[in-house]
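testing teh design pipeline on a random one, pls ignore if ur not involved
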């Protein structure tokens, strides 16, 4: 279903969107959501593993972004063990995997741009 003209909008979950792009960006927009999805493309990761892969994101921001992605049914949060220490893993839902072509295209475009206009640099003190 596509909009016919400027007099129509999309309504999804009670929110109004003027176009499909605005809906998509509401779900994966911002600095870190697409990055999180990119790193979950190969399977489940624990919170600390995600933090290692995205060292520039704050813990608070990562937690908020993960919660929003979970609320939008893009990622799944699985908690193992009922007593501490808890093991929590994040993975893409079936719906979340439908976003992978978009996320991979964004990553490829960004890498191409970086190779054309930038350089690869090692992060000082980064430990895997």
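output:
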């Amino acid at each position: 279903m596509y909009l016919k003209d400027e007099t129509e909008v999309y309504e999804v979950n009670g929110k109004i969107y003027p176009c499909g792009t605005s809906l998509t960006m509401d779900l994966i927009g911002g600095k870190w959501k697409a990055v999180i999805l990119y790193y979950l493309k190969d399977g489940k990761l624990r919170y600390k593993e995600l933090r290692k892969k995205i060292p520039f994101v704050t813990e608070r921001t990562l937690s908020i972004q993960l919660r929003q992605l979970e609320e939008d049914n893009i990622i799944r949060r699985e908690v193992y063990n009922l007593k501490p220490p808890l093991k929590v893993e994040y993975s893409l839902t079936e719906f979340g995997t439908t976003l992978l072509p978009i996320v991979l295209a964004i990553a490829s475009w960004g890498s191409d741009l970086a190779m054309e206009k930038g350089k690869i640099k090692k992060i000082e003190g980064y430990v895997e």
